[in-house]
Amino acid sequence: MLVSKDFCAWIAIDGVEVPEYGPESSETGQEYSCWIPSEVGKTFTVHWTNLSAPGLTGGGVQVDGHKCGFEAMASETRPISAFMDGIAETSTKTRPFVFAPLQLTGRFHFTADNQLTICQDDDAYLESASHPNLGLIKLEIWRVDIGGGGMAQSVAIPSSQKVHERSKKGMNQQITFGAAVEHAQVQNAQIRRIGHSPLVSFSFRYRSLDLLQANGIAPAQDRPEKRKASGSPEPAENDDADATEAEILKVCSH
Predict the structure, then answer these.
(1) What Pfam families would the database entry show (predicted)?
(2) How far apart are CA 76 and CA 81, in angstroms?
């Protein structure tokens, strides 16, 4: 997981925390990023924990440049965690995040089993706007005020993006939204973001594992054992620094 001074964040596929590669942070300590392996057909969830920041905070999630909603933490309890598993279609239905094959308008199209089929070029898409945020899951955490209630507001479900084969830039996946999952009715509150910028942002750049390996981001033979998001790593004995880090991981994993 990515850990800042006051927050941590991670991605889970089918409830299991995914490994992270090449973590980086800005000099200001407000931006953190890494690479994660994605799997076609798998659902995923964005998790975060407020470890120690005072006041009320909330997180906004974007996938492939699409805004997917905002989740506030309406409690002063620390640590406190939240997650987002999709877009709210209605107050009782959520469309889950799903990794899917990239839809190409150029010569090739990736199928569900990651095979290529030949299509007809459509050069009109080559001249269209680029997709700078394709392949990016972004979480921004803000300080917030929370006001009156109401029913949860739905978010428009974006269409799958189409990219010309010559401009896909090493991508072979995108994020789509699965069939609606019904749940109990969600109450909505008026949330106002405070300040001109988020307290911290976490960026997860996803690619298939073979692409990460081919580009030297993930070890070529690495098949890491995935750890349940609820797991509790054991602190190293007789090492205060390692013990402190282990405690942070333990808190963030709940």
Answers:
(1) DUF7918
(2) 11
